[in-house]
TrEMBL record:
Domain of life, per lineage: Bacteria
One GO MF term attached to the UniProt entry: ATP binding
Domain ABC transporter stretches: 5-246
SMART domains linked to this entry: AAA
PANTHER family registered for this protein in UniProt: ABC TRANSPORTER I FAMILY MEMBER 17
The name this protein goes by in its record: Phosphate transport ATP-binding protein PstB (TC 3.A.1.7.1)
Protein source organism: Thermobrachium celere DSM 8682
Membrane topology listed for this record: Peripheral membrane protein
Length: 251
């Protein structure tokens, strides 16, 4: 299977606090990879290292390498803004801009100088369809995105991310602020999107990881304890700590 990201000997520090410890992991293309583990174990920190979102936090240090398309994303060869276009992100809380639905989706394109109406119209329609939001919002795409429900806003945020045609979409607990029906819609969407994108998702829900991911990494205290096919992690974990966590003995 083809790795789209190869993480080697990665350490990450907030000041003196080593939050990630010697992580090695290949993330496979057109798969869904889930990161699970108790609160504070480093899942979000690791997710953010993959598109250098941690650059915005002061007093941090990265050691090791993350290879994407043959280049280390922390080397000078990689432009962080371009990297984040290729490796997009969706956050825990839906965060649409206080603009119209239309302008939310085309925001990144406009920033890159794409302003041709026909192109933007096409992207809006295509991405709204891709996130299964088109039928619900087609009559109000020029209305404020803030008028949408939380679940719709989150699908819009996913549309905004994929409008940039990324390779990888990072999702940090994308359903934790949503009701069960909206959660189900996002889960269905993730399964649909993996045909075209590589998805990496942090989740607190083991059911969710089991339902939608192909690979699962179990984190504990900044380490990856076990990383394998999701079916193996949940049916036959190698490590006692993984087993204890997935059977609800801690965390
Ligand atoms: N901006 C920051 N500055 C300093 N320390 C941080 C920062 N963000 C996270 N940490 C620390 O790094 C460690 C890992 O946190 P992280 O948020 O990555 O864990 P997590 O597994 O995603 O947790 P949760 O499931 O609660 O979201 C924790 O000890 C946390 O306190």
């Amino acid at each position: 299977m083809e790795a789209i990201l190869s993480v080697r000997n990665l350490n990450f520090y907030y000041g003196d606090n080593r939050a990630l410890k010697d992580i090695n992991m290949d993330i496979y293309k057109n798969n869904v990879t889930a990161f699970i583990g108790p609160s504070g174990c480093g899942k979000s920190t690791f997710l953010r290292t993959l598109n250098r979102m941690n650059d915005f936090i002061e007093n941090v240090k990265v050691e090791g390498s993350i290879i994407y398309e043959g280049k280390d994303i922390y080397s000078k060869e990689m432009e962080p803004v371009e990297l984040r276009r290729r490796i997009g992100m969706v956050f825990q809380k839906p965060n649409p801009f206080p603009k119209t639905i239309y302008e939310n989706i085309v925001y990144g394109l406009r920033k890159n100088g794409v302003n041709k109406k026909e192109i933007l119209d096409e992207v809006v329609e295509k991405t709204l369809k891709a996130v299964a939001l088109y039928d619900e919002v087609k009559d109000k795409i020029y209305k404020s995105a803030l008028e949408l429900s939380g679940g719709q806003q989150q699908r819009l945020c996913i549309a905004r991310a994929i409008a940039m045609q990324p390779d990888v979409v990072l999702m940090d607990e994308p359903t934790s602020a949503l009701d069960p029906i909206s959660t189900m819609k996002i889960e269905e969407l993730v399964l649909e999107l993996k045909k075209d994108y590589t998805i990496i998702i942090v989740t607190h829900s083991m059911q969710q990881a089991a339902r939608i991911s192909d690979y699962t990494a179990f984190f504990l205290n900044g380490e990856v304890i076990e990383y394998d096919e999701t079916s193996k992690i949940f049916s036959n974990p190698r490590d006692k700590r993984t087993e204890d966590y997935i059977t609800g003995r801690f965390g």
